[in-house]
């Protein structure tokens, strides 16, 4: 559906120079004074936002919303190019790891006059879109969390129950019941399970856990549920931290244990993962893996896979005594040089309203940012006979769970470019996790530490 973990396009010096020298002036090609152009990257959400556009146009006679959808990688490339060429849209779907750099380059319009009330949305979502200058640059749109997806047939054949998967716990010393379960779900080419004598870790037919790659700098659907439930935090502050903490002994011990699952033959190897071609859900769908960690945006993809009877379980409890999951949230932003800024503000206000968010929720594709929008999504999933409690309970009931955000700092693209190859080296080549200390020093140097 959508991929939120990859920072694939850095804003280049060319963009910065163009904006500083005033080269990016003008408006989106083909836009008129009665048109509001809106860009998004998720094709699955197009029908929901087309429905919102109809509602908006009824309330605002004379205004028309023109929606453009494109793939994730093309989206950021074309958006960056549009800022340089002066053909930017009025409004676009923004990502938490992008907006800081966009705000610094003065290509976003402050939204302080929209009257966004933080309390109207799920906790933390609105506050994340306030820049270091104190201005708001995004109106909350939706949110997602991570859960364990599993092949029900494989779980049943292994003699395991849903309640057992719902109650898993882990620790970095022996892996706890989580590692035992993943080992038991692993089967080699001769039919031996990972916890049986004679298991051949070099010839595995079914891995207990699919690979989502090295996790890059955030590990959203890979190692982050474990580092989070171990009490580790990406940076020294919740928002706009000045120092990353990949040198933490806690972090490195968790990462060492997590990638160590691959050495034992329980976690699919790094080479099994191909972004776009063989992601975690494809590994589960093909029978190559019994379970995977994935985000809420992938719910429909798993449940709509023909021949796959899938279940969900919450992330395992960690050494802190709590479960943990990243909670990400997208927002809608207005461009600084929006051709129809007045119309854009009306559209963003409507997008952030309960009216639109309940419409979006009714499609059962994502969890909208408002509580009522979330409830509408839960009801829509229920109609499809899909239980989404593993994703919603960390947000609606935090007694046993904790949520955390993407790291929000300057130079996110640079952090990604440094940490990604370092994490891949640990996973694919067995590099010592202590090497991440040097990488951390390089990252913090960029941040001015």
Quickly list its features:
449 residues; disordered N terminus; alpha/beta; 17 helices
Q: Give the end-to-end Cα distance, rounded to a whole number of Å.
A: 37 Å
Widest β-sheet, arrangement of strands: 2-1-3-12-4
In percent, how much strand structure appears in the residues?
A: 5-15%
* Unreliable spans: 1-31
**Main β-sheet: number of strands, strand sense, barrel status?**
5 strands, mixed
**Secondary-structure content class:** alpha/beta
Share of helical residues: 25-40%
User: What's the alpha carbon Rg, rounded to whole Å?
Assistant: 22 Å
Strand tally is 14
Averaging pLDDT over every residue, what do you get?
Answer: 92
Global outline = globular
**Count of DSSP helices?**
17
Secondary structure elements and their pairing?
Layout: H1 13-20, E1 35-40, H2 46-59, E2 64-69, H3 72-85, E3 91-94, H4 96-104, E4 139-140, E5 142-143, E6 146-151, H5 152-157, H6 162-166, H7 176-185, E7 187-188, E8 204-209, H8 224-229, H9 249-263, H10 280-285, E9 289-295, H11 299-303, E10 310-313, E11 323-326, E12 331-334, H12 341-351, H13 354-361, E13 367-368, H14 371-383, H15 389-396, E14 401-404, H16 412-429, H17 435-446
Parallel strand pairs: 1-2, 1-3, 8-9, 11-14
Antiparallel strand pairs: 3-12, 4-12, 5-13, 6-9, 6-10, 7-8
Helix pairs in contact: 1-3, 2-13, 13-14, 16-17
